[in-house]
Structure formats: C-alpha cells, structure tokens
Amino acid sequence: MTATKLDLTGLKCPLPALKTRKALQKLGTGERLEVHCTDPMAAIDIPHLVQQTGDRVESMRRADSLIVFLIEKAGSPSASPGSRKGQAAGCGGHGRSGR
C-alpha cells in the first residue's frame, strides 16, 4: 500500500505536529502517512503525537536536516488520559521559553 505524503519542510513547531494530526484524522485504518520535516523538534513532537492518537510510527529516518516519518493509522483514536484534542504534541515543554 502506498503512503500519503505530507511535505512539512521549513515549518516550525507547532505546525508539523498540528498538520500531521489533521492529516492522520483523514486517513482510514491501516493507511500510511509519510511526513517530511526539517524542524528538529519534530523528532520529539511527532512520535509523541502518534502515541497520543494511538497510531504507530513504523519508521523514522534522518538525512542531513530532513526527518522522514512513516506512520500507520490505527483503528480508533486512543483515549489516553494525557491526550487533549487540538493540543500540539509536546511543543510547549521543550525548554524553549522566551522564544
């Protein structure tokens, strides 16, 4: 099965996580999303988001400044206590205060 590609290169936190969440919501069970990012924080934020939504990161690879995720959509969203609809995954807690 081919993956839907999402090019988020050049976008900064929280946009990669927010746009990934929106794209995942449009996918059906078992479909895949290939996300291309250049923001280093995406390496933390996107796996955190995927954990919150109950989906699965199949792979994450880096090539220079590019980070590529392959994510599989799960059957139903996770209702974990730490997840809040519409919240960017992790972006506020990276020690980037004052920026």
List keywords for this structure.
alpha+beta; Translation Initiation Factor IF3; 2 helices
Question: Could you explain the architecture of this structure?
Answer:
By secondary structure, the protein is of the alpha+beta class. The protein has a single domain (3-74), classed as Translation Initiation Factor IF3 (2-Layer Sandwich), CATH 3.30.110.40. Helix content is 23%, strand content 27%. The protein has helices spanning 15-25, 42-53; strands at residues 3-8, 32-37, 56-63, 66-72. α1 (15-25) links the parallel β1 and β2 (32-37). It is globular, with a radius of gyration of 13 Å.
Strand order of the largest sheet: 1-2-4-3
How many strand segments?
4
Beta-strand level of the residues, as a percent range? 25-35%
Termini, distance in Å?
A: 41 Å
CATH topology name, in short, is Translation Initiation Factor IF3
What are the segments in which pLDDT stays under 50 over at least 5 consecutive residues?
Answer: 78-86, 95-99
- Number of helical runs? 2
Calculate Rg over CA atoms: 13 Å
Main beta sheet: strand number and arrangement?
Answer: 4 strands, mixed
CATH superfamily: TusA-like domain
Q: Determine the mean pLDDT.
A: 85
Q: How many structural units, i.e. domains?
A: 1
Q: So, CATH architecture?
A: 2-Layer Sandwich
Share of helical residues:
10-25%
Class inferred from helices and paired strands = alpha+beta
Order of helices and strands: EHEHEE
CATH class: Alpha Beta
Structural shape: globular
